Amino acid sequence: MKSYDVVVLGAGPAGLAAAITSNENGSKTLVIERENKPGGILKQCIHDGFGVVRFGQRLSGPEYAYKFIKEAKEKNVEMSFSSFVTKIKKSGEKFELELVNSMGMEKVKTKSIVLATGCRERTAKQVFIHGSRPAGVYTAGTAQYFTNIMGYLPGKECAVLGSGDIGLIMARRLTLEGAKVIGVYEAKPEPSGLKRNLIQCLDDYSIPLYLSHTITKIFGDERVEAVEISEVDKGMKPIKGTEKIVKCDTVILSVGLIPENEVAESLGLKMDPSTKGPLVDQDLMSVNMGGVFSCGNSLHVNDLVDYVSESGEIAGLGASRYTPVRKTHLIPLNKGKNLLYLVPQMINVKSKNKKVILYFRVKSTTKNAEFMAKLGNREILKRRYLYLRPAEMKRIVFDLPSDLSDDSELSFEVWEVNRERDHMHSVSQRMRVKNR
Amino acid sequence: MRVEKIESLLRKKVSKNIVCSEFHSSIVLEGEVDKWDDVIRAGKLAADKGYKGVVNRIRVKGLEIPKMKSPTVRDGSLEGKKFDVLIIGGGIIGCSIAREISKWDISIALVDKEEDVGTHTSSRNDGVVHPGIVPPPGSKKAFYNVRGNKMYTRISKELDIKFNRKGSLVLYDSVYIKMIKPLIIRRARRNGVKVHFLNVEQAKEIEPNITGEIRGAFFLPDTGVLSPYKTTIAYAENAAQNGVKFFLETVVKSMEVRNGKIISVDTNRGKIYPKVVINAAGNFADEVANMAGDQFFTIHPRKGEEVILDKKKGWLLNSIVSKLTINRRSNTKGGGLIKTVDGNILIGPNAYEQPYKEDYTTTPKGVDEVLNKHLHTIKGLSKNDVITYFAGTRAATYEEDFIVEKSEYVQNLIHVAGIQSPGIASAPAIAEDVEKMAVKVLRNYMLVKKKSNWNPTRKGIPLVNSLPYEERKRLIAQNPDYGVIICRCEEISKGEIIDAIHSAIPAKSLDSIKRRVGAGMGRCQGGFCTPLIMKIIHEESGMNMLKIRKKGGESYILREETKNSLRRIKAKEKSGER
């Protein structure tokens, strides 16, 4: 049985970054990729905008991926393609993986694992669309594969459900290929995608965006013939009497991404219901299974690939440094009411890593927002934002206070600051936090 | 009851606009009513009143029921062809009959209007092989169900299909059960079905995750589960191996009947001349009977919806769990939670009358009804675990019993109709009897001998992901394609997909591959593997990508090539353009 220090699952942007880092740090590293090429979903993302944060360039997906693929190849990172993990289990202090590929079956051992398995798209059935089951209903990612990898147009008259980024990008892509996009329908009262995509993908091509609207029914037995569009109320329930039937031959879905964590679950990792990824500490290691690290979109769904790579590097370094005798004492990051999630969810007080890269999202749009972290009652971090939107993930780097101890309490809050009564308001908010 | 009496009953209870008459030995209802429920009510009232069957032609004012969906293909490939036996319908009934009759040295054809076998009711059910306690003693349902259930032990081995006989648990939460307990015991004894009464602890030994207020349960050890579409396909493949010719996307349009005998059957591919015709047309069996001038029953499609949960939660259930509801009028066993042979939990079905035989649309109401009724029976299940849902229609007659008989008026026609639940459980037994009937009729016209080389065994596509490590390794060494995973959610290999494409009833569409090997059935619902499977179809069969369909008809996946598709670029390069 082959033995490694670090095995990385997935050769997308997170996995490649993790593998390069762990390899560079001197660990014997193996990347296992179920597809036949590295790059993950970037392979089909031929639009630009990747790498602005990291490289200061607007790269296409394949260009961004190529930078990492090239580096991994130059540094001889071992990669196994078209390989699929069928089983994974803890065996003593190590992990044992069972792989299948066209060469047969193989077992490998490793000290630590980096999960970089990405995410999948939510399907029509998972958002409870009803009606018939014709051809012509595709997730945006599938439609993107058809168009960009295979060179085929999946439809001529498309309705897009959901204003997630891939949906917006596909609305533009299909338009460029000569299809008509009749509209983007979003059940929420605000769009899910990035502002820049709303402008560059919809406004610039006069594609209408209908907020608080959803597809309630699909018509057509063989191929999609029409959809029923309904307005929805605040609880996102369709309003009776607002139904409209619109002709189209394709429904493109961009209704959310779900981290792929089947491997994590089979290992018994504790999961965060709000990120749908594992609960991790600042080294991105699972809080209940030492040696298992998570990064990229399998940890939580990112907006920007730059941060996917960043988290890959953190996880790769953590995995490379990991020893089973590592000391652990975890304290939770308590999140306030308006915070949807915080990653990491916990801090390992014993970790040598005192620099925390924190990713967060808010639950609802907040204007003039203040983000604050406190150790006990002491303010350790404060940031102001003109806007915080659930659609936009934020990143903060901060140093852990030197007086952090095993029974410290770390809490995080976001609130709206009223300019005129700025001071008063934040004081009263703080009081409330205290009283809780 | 005389026709006049039934008419006055219907006029009094349903509508004044109903007219009744007699045809052969059945009663015919005509007229116009306000709603579909009235049509059903009239049909039910007229049933079992001394006539063989009810032909219900009552219409609903202003309601246009669409005609049967037919394939668009037109060719003469079957024109003038002669067969000893023609089976109409490729559901589990048609396919199991085809397999049994293929023992005989005769020419057999099976036609189905869809692009694959088992696409309607046979793939739109929960796959439960019922033990046979529900059908009334003495009914055809009871007779075939109990016999068919037993036969699956052998059939599943011969056809290499998964069949789990783990029994079913019927929970009850009411003390009233004590009153009906003797009835259950009596019914079980009369139908020849085993039943055990369990207390809560014993029930929890079988299903540890049942919750809610439960007073006890009864356990039916003979209940089994199989994949209804894989079973149908297995029957069809075995039949095809034994010489049965399958003509798909072939629809029967009319028949020529002379002197009480079917002379020819007209299809979209030409006129066929069969010696014996078997009507196994499922929801359309009444229309096929009518083509032969022998309609004595009516199929009223009773719809049901079912929900499938993620395999991740499969471990919460071992067998089948349902709750006893004391409701005499109910025409379904009430549905429940079923652990499928693939390892998912399937929930449902509900049951409601509606006029459309091929309306498989799901509704929020139906799916919610199913979930609300059953989800809480097992601890740990939630609405978030739903990966998909589907609908089907039961081919019910007003008499609510199976019709398995030689026509009284057409000498070379056999009807196998009204096969609703427990149709899957009954199919093997029905097929055996129909085989005998058909041979008997055929002997009026020709000498019939058994084949010397009939092969009852069929080898299925290997279930690669469930093979032991070493065995899987060996298989991949023989064929590396078995090591290339295409469907990541269900762990299905390229080799299995290729096997499906080249099987005895070749899979040509995405859905037909899905039914054979399960690719695309998981939590991503084909999001990742659809394009990859299309490439394999293209490579294996040479089919143009634009011609690949999801299912039959015009269900093409793709519309056209993109402006800069590889093919177009190559073509431009060739012609010297830039």
What does this 3D model show about the protein?
- The complex is a heterodimer of chains A (about 425) and B (about 575).
- Chain A has helices spanning about 15-25, 50-55, 60-75, 140-150, 165-175, 195-200, 260-265, 305-320, 420-435; strands at about 1-10, 30, 50, 60, 80, 85-90, 95-100, 105-115, 120, 130, 135-140, 150-155, 155-160, 180-185, 210, 215-220, 225-230, 245, 250-255, 255-260, 290-295, 330-335, 340-345, 345-350, 355-360, 365-375, 380-390, 395-400, 410-415.
- By secondary structure, chain A is of the alpha/beta class.
- In chain A, the strands form 7 sheets. In chain A, strands 1, 2, 5, 6, 7, 8 and 21 form a 7-stranded mixed beta sheet that branches. Chain A has a 5-stranded parallel beta sheet with strand order 11-19-13-14-15.
- In chain A, helix 1 packs parallel to helix 8 (about 305-320).
- By secondary structure, chain B is of the alpha/beta class.
- Helix content of chain B is about 30%, strand content about 20%.
- In chain B, helix 3 (about 90-100) packs across helix 10, helix 4 crosses helix 10 (about 425-440) and helix 12 crosses helix 13 (about 510-515).
- The relative contact order of chain B is 0.14.
- The chains are: A alpha/beta (about 425), B alpha/beta (about 575).
- Chains A and B meet through strand 7, strand 10, helix 4 and strand 12 of A and strand 22, helix 11, helix 14, strand 27 and helix 15 of B.
- Strand 12 of chain A pairs antiparallel with strand 27 (about 560) of chain B.
